[in-house]
Amino acid sequence: MKTQTKNLPHVVIVGAGFGGLRAARALRKAAVRVTLIDRNNYHLFQPLLYQVATAGLSVDEIAYPLRGILRGQRNLEFQLAEVQKVDMENQIIRTDLGEMSYDALILAVGSETNFFGNVSLAKNSFGLKGIEEAEAIRNHILHQFELASQTEDHAFRQALLTFVVAGGGPSGVEMAGAISELIRLVLRKDFPRLDFSEVRVLLLEAGDRLLTHLDASLSQAALTALAKKGVEVRFGQQVQAFDGRTLQCTGQEDLPAHTLIWTAGVRAAELVDGLDMQQATQKRVQVLPSLQIPGHANVFLIGDAAYLEGKDGKPLPMVAQVAMQQADTAVQNLLRWLRTEAVQPFVYRDLGTMATIGRNQAVAELFGLRFRGWIAWLIWLFVHLMQLVGFRNRLVVLINWAWEYLLYERAVRLIAHSTVREESWSAHKL
Amino acid sequence: MKTQTKNLPHVVIVGAGFGGLRAARALRKAAVRVTLIDRNNYHLFQPLLYQVATAGLSVDEIAYPLRGILRGQRNLEFQLAEVQKVDMENQIIRTDLGEMSYDALILAVGSETNFFGNVSLAKNSFGLKGIEEAEAIRNHILHQFELASQTEDHAFRQALLTFVVAGGGPSGVEMAGAISELIRLVLRKDFPRLDFSEVRVLLLEAGDRLLTHLDASLSQAALTALAKKGVEVRFGQQVQAFDGRTLQCTGQEDLPAHTLIWTAGVRAAELVDGLDMQQATQKRVQVLPSLQIPGHANVFLIGDAAYLEGKDGKPLPMVAQVAMQQADTAVQNLLRWLRTEAVQPFVYRDLGTMATIGRNQAVAELFGLRFRGWIAWLIWLFVHLMQLVGFRNRLVVLINWAWEYLLYERAVRLIAHSTVREESWSAHKL
Does A379 touch chain B (CB under 8 A)? Predict the structure, then answer.
């Protein structure tokens, strides 16, 4: 079938997130055979995942079929598989479907939620990394309100209506803001007989400010915006345990709550532990400035799972921008390596960073300028809309956002997947 | 809270499908307290479920949150619960959350897939009644193609690519047509290296024609349209067993296939078995012409679960139209009964019926006129679009349809819910 390309070097890319997908496309005109492997058949626009979790968007609006994106690329094959092991000595990767050899490898495996070995957290709290988790959060939040509407037990109801988000980074800030808006703007209309003064949304941060990657003035702006939206922000709070009913924080009274969303920890995808390389903070693997893995010139590691320091001596952040820029450098270096030319070091150009705190509120640092409030929110909307894959997705997301904005609505208030619910029902038997 | 309404008669409606929702709305100005119970928090537009199963629409486009629909209705409370038992003697219903008494009851519990006690079918084939099933079908079909693209075993690949739909009614015809189009128009582009002459879509019907509720000329038109779309229609075929790998039909050779979608049987929801009333064909409960249950003047049964004959002596069909018209009659009779007036018999006005067979093809009988081909398809589009709840849903569905039509695309080609997939992965280990 692929006779004419059989003798070309085989480049395998593991992971079709921002980094892996960008690398795949950057190779489209190269004289190589590319295999892109992912355990999902879609590319996920993770920055909007919290909107799926809060009933604003549906999954298909932020997930796009990879075969659709890559249709035109003749030198590429996609494989739906889970990579289990990378054997750099023998240049082989092992997946749940078998083995595959490579000439060069780009690992873009991303990151996963880090519960720091805390079993109670891993079992009872929600992470926010994939579409299943986002839908589970949506189902769960809506279900708490259904249960609350049917009980006369005040303490029980109070616990059902206490929503805790752990972690004051962008994910935690956006999530807490979105939950509070879902509740106060939308669910309030759905549950007219509930007393909404019983609802609490808490954001717990271990340190002493939010969004530490931004200027302190923007952290303060975010805090003010969250407070206005009814989110209680608590600093210096370390979560110790959560059994699904009660939250324990160091030096605090127990807090009855049925919902904990955990955004306070992230680590390189577990697959990299098996590489047996030096791992820095968050289990990220130390790579060479060229993004090669030390001792393995044909293996490139990019994105969240790679550890590299910026000019300021700080580790590069785990964000899409870094992954995408690294994809470009990795591909160039890979092609240089194939031509036996010298590889070049990666240089990060920080285009800025932003976080939204719901309706009309965001903070952003772009090209060295700081924005907040309405203007930052508009910038955020525009940037995110333009980054979505596909015209249909942009149009449908825009319609949903306009509809939400004008009517104070959330379209996707569905409790789907009855298995999740039934489990939770029986646990809650009134 | 609801002091002023406490003394009003309490009407409980079980089920928020076409009948139950219509009844709830018809009671909005009545001097009664209404409780609407459903096990889901959404109303599902079932006629388009097959488009979710074939990656054309996402769930939120055909499911609408009940609390959103019923927000303005002050005399109504919604309860998310599963009804387990109706005790007509004591005027109590039992749910998974407790008991509730009623003064009058409207049962609109609908129907469910009937596997006629065949365990292998129930376990290994897909029904098409809820959103979970529709998403499972979508995940499964797309996954078969991913697996087929990764195997060199011809017989295995052939079995993966054989899709069987059982039942030649509207659901089966629409499903078979939509699967064939998904494959031949869309997936063909996603899997350029697969040999699509290996793909088979079969529609099995036990009788000797499709769409028996329509005129024979339209049955023939549907058959021709399906054949043109590459669907193999086989008559006189009774499925005996399906183990997930091989399909057995009476008097036929075994057919290796990994997919069976079962639309060949439907029965009244199991809840009605517990009423201990006379049940007719498809376990439907014989009701009085007034839609009351014999001996229980305060209990009305409407929709798919009710058995009543039309003027032609045939049972009324299990369709939305019947349920909605019965809802109106049941509500009127319920109010008459509260006023101790005489109840009136239900009279069905058949507005027509239609089925679509994919792109540009449909058959319809409306107001005694017969339509087929493009014009029937346009009528079908218009009627279904207008029946969707909510402006946003109509707009987004219209965009999806236009996009599909113009670009030969299906937006929702996502294999979601990895649990489903992983199970299937391990079973398929190559």
Answer: no
Q: Which domains does chain B have, with CATH numbers?
A: 3-39+81-113+267-338 (3.50.50.60), 119-264+359-428 (3.50.50.100)
CB atoms within 10 A of CB A340: 6
Express each pLDDT in A196-227 by its tens digit: 999 999 999 999 999 998 899 999 999 999 99
C-alpha–C-alpha distance, residues A381 and B329, integer Å: 49
- By DSSP bridging, strand B33-38 and strand B111-113 are unpaired
Restricting to B residues 86-115, those with a Cβ less than 8 Å away from any Cβ of A are 96-98
Q: Are A319 and A354 contacting, i.e. CB atoms less than 8 angstroms apart? A: no
List helix spans (H) across B34-169.
Answer: 49-53, 66-69, 119-124, 131-148, 154-160
Partner-chain contact A399 B400, CB within 8 Å: no
Tell me if chain B has a CB within 8 Å of the CB of A3.
no
d(CA A46, CA A171): 10
pLDDT range class, residue B417, cuts 50, 70, 90: low
Per residue in A119-128, pLDDT (tens digit) is 999 999 999 9
Average the pLDDT over A410-423 and give the result: 63
Contacts with B, A 127-186, CB within 8 Å: 130-132, 142-143, 146, 150
CA-closest candidate to residue A401, choices A181, A251, A72? A181
- B370: contact with A, CB 8 A cutoff: no
Q: Which residues contact A254 (CB under 8 A, 6 or more apart)?
A: A246, A247, A248
pLDDT at residue B3 above 60? Answer: no
CB A290 within 8 A of CB A315: no
Which pTM value belongs to this model?
A: 0.92
Mean predicted confidence (pLDDT) in A56-75: 92
Rg (chain A; Cα; Å): 23
